[in-house]
């Protein structure tokens, strides 16, 4: 097997040969050995924008997970190829909402609330999907008057949706939906979790009658691990600690933290702090460790004392990056992510609504 040094040399050599023909994009959760080769590193919103603007490259090699690469394909030019170095890099949360279950839910909600707008022109339900979802679901949302959000713009997007709809169906991440709507003042009792009729017996009519946000059952298995006792321990051991968590964490964790925000928000909060600050961070451990290395002036540690990696993000091993780049040098595009044109058109509508939504 190739050593880390050999892989590094192969990646550098292939990138040198390809020059401007390739751009490597990397999510903050990628391991250091991959991030080092990225031309742009960002959160999922910034990476979607990067796919729109890096239009000189023939190839976009996306070091992240499948739904991010699909989004890059939808937003990039048709003659650009998006490559995901390892096709097994998915997202378990994105997999928690599939097209047919969402269609079943949508049908039930339409049965219950009808389809006619109210006196202010607001339709009964607006579907909102988190970026962490398949292209098929982004297309579903695009076709049904809805919108995509990321963790950095969820509040703006919910405001957009409430201006056009009486209520919102939010999927797949219940925690991002609940945390964001709660911060906007929506009472918890108006945010039921949707239960499919056949499998789970459905919701009671009372639960749905006054609902403002209908939440899907999805969650992130990485962020679900963070807990209030971990925050209490961090505060006991470091009285000056600032606890910052990702909004995919459960509500009690976000409530007990000092701040919650996207991966980019977390980076910026750390960069803006006075030297000598202490941070306990509730997000993926590769990013937390890199932040700690980049900021020796602070004390930075992951809230989860064991380890909290995103195992699918970690599937982008530098060996895969070397391989796909060398194939491009040889004129072969492997692991291309290509969203079917009919799906891409509707998904792009939903993504463009997000990109245009303003606070
Ligand atoms: P960001 O949008 O904050 O980059 O988060 C993406 C993600 O998958 C978090 O788990
Ligand atoms: Fe998906 Fe969670 Fe990994 Fe983000 S951290 S890519 S939500 S599994």
- Strand-residue proportion: 5-15%
CATH C-level label of the largest domain? Alpha Beta
Q: Which cofactors or ions or other ligands sit in this model?
A: 1,3-dihydroxyacetonephosphate, iron/sulfur cluster
Spans where pLDDT lies below 50 across 5 or more residues: none
* Apparent shape: globular
Number of helical regions: 16
Q: List how many beta strands DSSP finds.
A: 12
Total tally of structural domains: 3
Helical proportion, percent range: 40-55%
Largest sheet: 4 strands, parallel
Largest beta sheet: strand ordering: 2-1-3-4
Give the overall pLDDT as a whole number: 96
What is the CATH H-level superfamily of the largest domain? NadA-like
State the CATH architecture of the largest domain.
Answer: 3-Layer(aba) Sandwich
CATH T-level fold name of the largest domain: Rossmann fold
Q: What is the chain-wise order of helices and strands?
A: HEHEHEHEHEHEHEHHHEHEHEHEHEHH
For the termini, the CA-CA separation is 51 Å
Secondary structural class: alpha/beta
Rg (C-alpha, Å) = 21 Å
Function: Catalyzes the condensation of iminoaspartate with dihydroxyacetone phosphate to form quinolinate.
Binding site for iminosuccinate: 27, 44, 130-132, 151, 246-248, 263
Family: Belongs to the quinolinate synthase family. Type 3 subfamily.
Keywords: 4Fe-4S, Cytoplasm, Iron, Iron-sulfur, Metal-binding, Pyridine nucleotide biosynthesis, Transferase
Notable traits:
four-stranded parallel β-sheet, transferase activity, iron, 359 residues, Rossmann fold, 16 helices, 3 domains, 4Fe-4S, binds 1,3-dihydroxyacetonephosphate, binds iron/sulfur cluster, alpha/beta, cytoplasm, 15% strand, Quinolinate synthase
């Amino acid at each position: 097997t190739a050593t880390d040094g050999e892989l590094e040399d192969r990646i550098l050599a292939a990138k040198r040969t390809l020059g401007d023909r390739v751009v490597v994009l990397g999510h903050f959760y990628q391991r250091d050995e991959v991030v080092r080769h990225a031309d742009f590193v960002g959160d999922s919103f910034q990476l979607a924008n990067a796919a729109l603007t890096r239009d000189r490259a023939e190839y976009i090699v996306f070091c992240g997970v499948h739904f991010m690469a699909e989004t890059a394909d939808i937003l990039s030019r048709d003659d650009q190829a998006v490559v995901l170095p390892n096709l097994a890099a998915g997202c378990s949360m994105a997999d928690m909402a599939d097209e047919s279950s969402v269609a079943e839910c949508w049908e039930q909600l339409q049965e219950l609330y009808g389809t006619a707008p109210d006196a202010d022109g607001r339709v009964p339900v607006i579907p909102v999907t988190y970026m962490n979802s398949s292209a098929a679901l982004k297309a579903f949302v695009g076709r049904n008057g809805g919108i995509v959000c990321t963790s950095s713009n969820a509040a703006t997007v919910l405001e957009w949706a409430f201006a056009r709809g009486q209520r919102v169906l939010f999927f797949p991440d219940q925690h991002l939906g609940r945390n964001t709507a709660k911060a906007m003042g929506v009472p918890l009792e108006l945010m039921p979790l949707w239960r499919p009729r056949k499998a789970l017996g459905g919701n009671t009519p009372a639960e749905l009658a006054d609902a403002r946000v209908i939440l899907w059952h999805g969650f992130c298995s990485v962020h679900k691990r963070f807990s209030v006792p971990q925050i209490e321990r961090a505060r006991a051991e470091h009285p000056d600690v600032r606890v910052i968590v990702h909004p995919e964490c459960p509500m009690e964790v976000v409530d007990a933290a000092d701040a919650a925000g996207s991966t980019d928000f977390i980076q910026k909060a750390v960069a803006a702090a006075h030297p000598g600050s202490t941070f306990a961070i509730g997000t993926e451990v590769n990013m937390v460790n890199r932040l700690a290395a980049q900021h020796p002036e602070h004390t930075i540690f992951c809230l989860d004392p064991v380890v909290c990696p995103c195992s699918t993000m970690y599937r982008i091993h530098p060996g895969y990056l070397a391989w796909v780049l060398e194939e491009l040098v040889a004129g072969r595009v492997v692991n291309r992510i290509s969203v079917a044109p009919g799906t891409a058109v509707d998904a792009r509508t939903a993504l463009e609504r997000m990109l245009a939504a303003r606070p």
